[in-house]
Amino acid sequence: MDEIIILDKTIKIELLTEKETRDCLDIAAHNPEKGILYQIKKHKIGERWQKRTKHVKLSNLKALIIDNDEMELLPEEKINKDLSFLAG
Q1: Left (φ > 0), alpha (ψ -120 to 50) or beta: where does 55 sit?
Q2: How far, in Å, CA of 42 to CA of 51, rounded?
């Protein structure tokens, strides 16, 4: 999915023509010498999406757990276990 997003952005800001963009899709995506990874490095677009981090964003997970509890969708034991996990 990231590859399509990057390609769409490159067309919109006119870094690549539509033909060049389609050519990127025909080349193996993980080849750093050609295709989308080459374009990402060349234009410095989407590099952060290619990097792995050890940071996990839990975003609104606590709110969702509480919603599940209020709607009685999960056993109380599971709710408590999940909330204690988030508490650290």
Answers
A1: beta
A2: 16
Give CA separation, 53 vs 49, 56, 57, 61, in Å. 10, 8, 10, 19
2-12 and 18-26 helices cross at what angle (nearest 10)?
160
Instruction: Give first-to-last CA distance, the chain, whole Å.
Output: 33
Helices in 14-71 by DSSP H: which ranges? 18-26, 35-43, 47-50, 61-70
Kindly report whether the global pTM for this prediction surpasses the value 0.70. no
Q: How far apart are CA 70 and CA 85, in angstroms?
A: 19
27-56 confidence digits (pLDDT tens):
665 677 777 777 777 887 777 777 777 777
Q: What distance in Å separates the CA atoms of residue 5 and residue 21, rounded to the nearest whole number?
A: 11
